[in-house]
């Protein structure tokens, strides 16, 4: 049963992770060891050439090795698929599920199918994905049709594997906000294993509601959470304290939903100092999670803003 909002005794303890796309200069084993040593509960594992390459030979054997390491370190995992150039060295995040060329769409869908298999073998709590940007000259109805058709076999595979597929609304993409997620959900017939990745910074960036309200609205479909600081109207992932988000109410709302997956720090442009930001992000989040939202109404500056 999901705890009722306001019932502090029923709060689900939050589990924090860090994304390997913010540790791109580290070997995957070094990244996992670092996160375990720092006290993280898990990792958002982006399938990329430096971290469990989904296209290189012997994927199943390499996945088993990572699974054993995760188990030894006591880390949970979400499989993320936002690698910039894993499919095409010239097109960032290309090809997408919206490309005019059906073979290109199939390449992206195949990556997601591989991710589902990896997630099942790792015991991951979700597979993350996104729609992509609408190609020039493509009308909206066509783009939505391509997205639904491309995701259908991935959803079937995810259902068979018992791993939720968690679609992320991404600023600038076809599926950019929470309303777009619900449009996709309806188009696909509301499949049980279609869930939502909620990026807290994206809520601050473009959603009309406050981030804490977005969490409450998304709760029934929430399967994965990404978190970072951000400013209104500017899609730039920032270290905690550099943006405008008031985090205690957000984490209070998240705990109240009963969400049991990972809340993963998403700082992909800070890999140059990834260990530093990993070290400093977890204490910030723990302080914010422990702080009462009421404490920020006293007129004193918040230490978690």
Care to describe what's here?
This protein is of the alpha/beta class. It has a single domain, classed as Divalent-metal-dependent TIM barrel enzymes (TIM Barrel). It contains nine helices and ten strands. The strands form two sheets. It has an eight-stranded parallel sheet with strand order 3-2-1-10-7-6-5-4. A two-stranded antiparallel ribbon has the order 8-9. The radius of gyration is 18 Å and the shape is globular.
What average pLDDT do the residues reach?
A: 93
Order of helices and strands: EHEHEHEHEHEHHEEEHEH
Largest sheet, spatial ordering of strands: 3-2-1-10-7-6-5-4
Count the strands? 10
CATH homologous superfamily name? Answer: Divalent-metal-dependent TIM barrel enzymes
Strand content: 5-15%
Distance between the termini: 32 Å
Radius of gyration: 18 Å
Coarse shape: globular
Level of helix content? 25-40%
Number of domains: 1
Q: Please outline the major beta sheet.
A: 8 strands, parallel
Broad structural category: alpha/beta
CATH topology: TIM Barrel
Contiguous uncertain segments of 5+ residues: 1-9, 294-305
Just name the CATH architecture.
Alpha-Beta Barrel
Instruction: State the name of the first-level CATH class.
Output: Alpha Beta
- How many helices? 9
């Amino acid at each position: 049963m999901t705890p009722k909002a306001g019932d502090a005794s029923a709060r689900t303890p939050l589990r924090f992770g860090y994304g390997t796309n913010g540790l791109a200069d580290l070997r995957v084993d070094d990244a996992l060891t670092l996160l375990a040593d720092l006290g993280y509960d898990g990792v958002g594992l982006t399938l990329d050439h430096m971290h469990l390459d989904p296209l290189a030979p012997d994927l199943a054997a390499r996945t088993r090795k990572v699974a054993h390491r995760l188990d030894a370190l006591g880390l949970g995992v979400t499989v993320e698929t936002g690698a910039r150039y894993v499919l095409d060295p010239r097109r960032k995040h290309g090809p997408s599920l919206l490309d005019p060329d059906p073979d290109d769409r199939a390449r992206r869908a195949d990556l997601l199918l591989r991710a589902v298999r990896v997630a099942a073998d790792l015991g991951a709590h979700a597979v993350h994905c996104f729609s992509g940007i609408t190609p020039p000259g493509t009308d909206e109805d066509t783009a939505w049709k391509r997205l639904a058709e491309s995701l259908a076999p991935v959803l079937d595979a995810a259902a068979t594997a018992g791993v939720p597929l968690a679609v992320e609304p991404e600023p600038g993409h076809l599926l950019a906000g929470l309303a777009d997620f619900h449009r996709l959900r309806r188009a696909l017939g509301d499949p049980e294993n279609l869930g939502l990745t909620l990026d807290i910074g994206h809520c601050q960036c473009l959603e009309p509601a406050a981030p804490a309200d977005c969490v409450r609205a998304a709760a029934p479909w929430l399967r994965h959470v990404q978190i970072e600081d951000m400013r209104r109207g500017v899609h730039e992932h920032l270290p905690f304290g550099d943006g405008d988000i008031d985090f205690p109410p957000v984490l209070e709302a998240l705990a109240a939903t009963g969400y049991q997956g990972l809340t993963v720090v998403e700082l992909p442009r800070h890999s140059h100092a990834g260990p530093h930001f990993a070290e400093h992000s977890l204490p910030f989040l723990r302080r914010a999670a422990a702080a009462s939202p009421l404490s920020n109404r006293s007129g004193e500056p918040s230490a978690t803003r």
